[in-house]
Design goal:
9 strands; elongated; Spore Coat Polysaccharide Biosynthesis Protein SpsA, Chain A; 49% helix
């Protein structure tokens, strides 16, 4: 048996997005971590002692719950390019035979990986459903390049033929049962074991009441989800009520300012401003008006008395 080096492509940003209809972002992140841990454990059980995790972003392996025995070399490689570009750049640097293992294979075992590595062909593929490639063994990484996505199984088969490499298919239900869609969960609940299966069984239960085996959200999970939704709704209602109250207060203040402004304008037009430049208030304006009226009456009275006094004086002078 050749001494293989394994590479595990991994993405922690928005993982397992096709499960978003049944799992929250936090649950999908936890599931991705458990799947990575399971993949690394299977490689170690297969006797592979050089394992590289190929990630698009920096990771902390302890935070990812990943550890390895002293005899295993576990490395984290960062490449933010797309999957094919990153993996092919990795292959160009390798001289050892390579085993590429996807993380979304919770039913795979160390024995399965060991048997794949023991195949005599240059290229061995464990296909996934829908024409995908779940596990890929490459004895000649110097001349073979990957083409994932779509019907990658046919792409890799063609690549091997064009490069004159022998090709073999490893047919295994456990190696082909990838966890991508909600319908895949039931198979994991039935056939799986270990942390991934335990995690999913806390959320889902199997149901075949309609003659079709499916995974449904368990009653406990449904109740917890409903409680969380109620709390979220209550919080949203409280925030909305607070916002409406603030808006009402703001509108009230604006209305008060508008009334004051209008009143000020009316007073200024009617009474003007006092000596300090401030708007004359109604009471002050009324007081001023009364004083004007009194002053006017007094002046009128004085002028009348003068005129009366002038008449006799005028006659005397004449």
């Amino acid at each position: 048996m050749n001494v293989y080096r394994a590479v595990v492509p991994f993405r922690i940003e928005n993982p397992k997005s096709r499960l978003s209809s049944v799992l929250s972002p936090e649950e999908r992140t936890m599931l991705a971590r458990l799947l990575l841990k399971n993949a690394v454990g299977c490689l170690e059980n297969a006797g592979i002692r050089k394992i590289d995790i190929l990630s698009k972003t920096p990771l902390s392996l302890p935070e990812m719950m990943i550890s390895s025995p002293p005899e295993t070399s576990l490395s984290l490689l960062i490449d933010d390019r797309d999957l094919n570009t990153a993996v092919n750049a990795y292959l160009e640097k390798q001289t050892d035979p390579i085993l590429i293992l996807m993380t979304d294979l919770p039913l795979v075992t160390g024995d399965i990986l060991r048997r794949i590595c023991d195949t005599a062909s240059d290229i061995c593929i464990a296909p996934g459903r829908g024409g995908g490639t779940n596990i890929l063994k490459i004895d000649r990484p110097d001349i073979f390049r990957v083409r994932y996505h779509g019907q990658s199984f046919l792409n890799h088969k063609k690549q091997a033929s064009e490069n004159g490499l022998s090709f073999e298919v490893f047919d295994s239900f456990f190696a082909g049962a990838d966890l991508d869609e909600p319908d895949d969960i039931a198979e994991i609940l039935i056939h799986g074991n270990g942390p991934v299966r335990d995690f999913l069984s806390d959320i889902f239960r199997t149901d075949d009441s309609n003659g079709c085996l499916r995974a449904q959200v368990s009653a406990r999970k449904r109740c917890a989800k409903n409680d969380a939704q109620k709390v979220t709704q209550k919080t949203a209602d409280k925030k909305r009520h607070t916002k409406n109250s603030r808006q009402k207060t703001t509108h009230k203040k604006q209305d008060t300012k508008t009334v004051c402004k209008c009143t000020k304008t009316v007073y200024e037009k009617q009474y003007g401003k006092n000596s300090t430049g401030k708007t004359v208030t109604a009471s002050y304006a009324q007081s001023r008006q009364k004083n004007r009226n009194r002053s006017g009456q007094k002046e009128t009275g004085n002028s009348g008395s003068v005129r009366k006094n002038k008449k006799p004086g005028s006659a005397a002078s004449s």
